[in-house]
TrEMBL record:
Residues 108-176 form the Polymerase/histidinol phosphatase N-terminal domain. The chain crosses the membrane at residues 37-62. PANTHER family: EXONUCLEASE, POLYMERASE_HISTIDINOL PHOSPHATASE N-TERMINAL DOMAIN-CONTAINING PROTEIN. One of its GO terms (molecular function) is 5'-3' DNA exonuclease activity. This is 10748_t:CDS:1. Keywords: Membrane, Transmembrane, Transmembrane helix. Coiled coil: none annotated.
Amino acid sequence: MSLHDSPPPSPTLPAYTSSFKFSRVLMRLPRISLSKCLIAFFYHLMLFCICLIPILVMVTIIKYKMIPDQYDYSQVTFDWKIDPRGYLIPMNGSIGTHNDSGGVEILLDGHVHTTRSDGKLSPEQVIQWGIANGYNAMIVSDHNTIKGGLEAKEIAETKYNDSIIIIPAVEYSNCRIHMNLIGLTQDIPYGSAEPSDDEIKQIIDLTHELGGLVSVNHIPWSNKTESGYEVATLPNHPTREQLVEWGVDAFELINGGTFDMQTYLYVSSLSHSPPLFFLSGTDLHYPNTPAYAWTLLSTPSFTSESLFTTLRSRPSTSFLFDPAGTRFISYPPERSSYYALLPLMELADYWTSFYEESRGMYSFMGSFCHERKMYYVKTVEKKEYVVVERVVTDRRIIDKEDGMGREALRKLAELNVYYALARLLSSSPTTIAFSKLAPQFAVSSPAYPSSFNFFR
């Protein structure tokens, strides 16, 4: 063979051998790739869930436990001075004047809270709020603690001695009753969240043994229906007859802007010895709360000891009452830190948006007064409407105060049945007919017409 001759062709493999190896590769390759892909997919999905769940739990905890208040109440000031005697007529003009027994005129707020329980104002801010709204005496009564009252009394005697008197108290609070234990100087055992009749009577007796007075607070509020439960806010509240029998000294006749007419008529009809007396209280928690009522009485001298001695004598009291409330209100500035954490709150809201929780009234003893309920929210799309439905057992719509448009929807949102019309998918102004959305929940009332313009 010469050097220029081409090499002989290489022998070819049999056709069946080549096709056999190729088919084996084709058969094995998809199985191997699919298995690896599935394994990799589920592995990374598991890692994603492992990382995501703690993040969602963390932001939910932040939402409920660690988010700062939207408002900075520590910056609130009260730069006005109201004289309620200048525009209000007292219920009994002969009580509480300077000429009454030659004493000092007292304008008392008998029920306020501080940051030592669930109030938003410090003890000193509460004093400043009281002076601005025309009070010269206050009973500081935090829930199940005497700390706020004692602190406010010390501040008043040190810095505001010529302007206001503070009497410390405790609002004995649980799932059956709220009562002011007035004049205490120490905390006492407050018992259980659902005390028996005997336990409540023991608290009254112990307060008297320590030299204090007992005033029953806001009976109308205590007996109002708790939203979503159709039972009282404080279930099994003692009757007025029981409370008088157990030895209470006073009743809160006016709480906020609510006048308790039934208690007034009942107590006024009694020939009780010693006589019961009435107090009023703003039940102050927030700085943007108006003043509604001032308890009028006279005391021999302008000291807390003199005022408390007068209260122990169970005096006849009068009131200045303005159900509209005072005009001057202070609003707190907003916190920048709140908005810095707002994205986390939005993530937590999305994570928890499929349910709502209701536990009723808080007992102020670490528990709640009503059964815990979970409301599962489902979204239903119907043509051009988006309707959010709260799933509950009882779906009755109660006739509320009059209102139109957005106000009517806001009122409906407060009811047991929650229909929030999120928004129309079309942007043009449209008349929404309730009967089209949910005929079974149609409202037949002058306050809620069958249809109204939502976007106006």
